Amino acid sequence: MKTVPIVQAEMLPIVKSSRMFHYLSEPEIIVLLGACEQIRFGKDERIITERDPGDCLYLILSGSARVTVEENGRDAYICTLGAGDVFGEAGLFMNLKRTANVAAADDGMTVLRVKRSDFMRFIREHPAAGIKVLFMIIYSLLAKLREANLELAFERREDIAQDDIDDLLRDYLEQK
């Protein structure tokens, strides 16, 4: 992990192209960049560790990241995130442990990181811009919740199907 200087001219189009900050004006993005750090990670370097506390939001500027969760002592793959994707949003609002691991998939993967205290100061000093970002964070979290709910519903359907198969096999074996 290496903190690198933010070059606003380079960052403006990248930040503007992300869904999370798309509705901010150029001056609002410049102010937000003042609250951020740009960090570069090496391949397989951890950005977030499951069950660690966290208070930062991350925006991927370049490269990609793998999201995993620990399952039976091994990392289970969840998804890959790429440039423009945001993760860690819940850490801005809650003092909860992280729910997944996030690691750089590429050497030189670069993120913008904003800490809760800096984000809250941004909202206090620039409420109109802060509201735009908050709406997008809410949208992002609700989209992730919807995705998780759909996955749970699918797994429940699969469980029911397994019960049906078990019943059929039991009926078959009892007939002999």
Low-confidence parts, pLDDT < 50 over ≥5 residues? none
Please give the domain count: 1
Terminal CA distance: 65 Å
Oligomer: single chain
The share of residues in extended strands comes to: 25-35%
Which structural class do the helices and strands define? alpha+beta
The residue fraction in helices comes out at 40-55%
Query: Taking all residues together, what is the mean pLDDT?
Result: 90
Listing every helix as H and every strand as E from the N terminus to the C terminus, the arrangement reads EHHEEEEEEEEHH
CATH topology: Jelly Rolls
Characterization of the model:
The structure is a single chain. The chain has a single domain, classed as Jelly Rolls (Sandwich), CATH 2.60.120. It is built from 4 helices and 9 strands, in the order E-H-H-E-E-E-E-E-E-E-E-H-H. The strands form 2 sheets. A 5-stranded antiparallel sheet has the order 1-2-9-4-7. The longest helix has 48 residues. It starts with a strand and ends with a helix. 19% of the residues are buried.
Key phrases:
4 helices; 176 residues; five-stranded antiparallel sheet; alpha+beta; four-stranded antiparallel sheet; Jelly Rolls
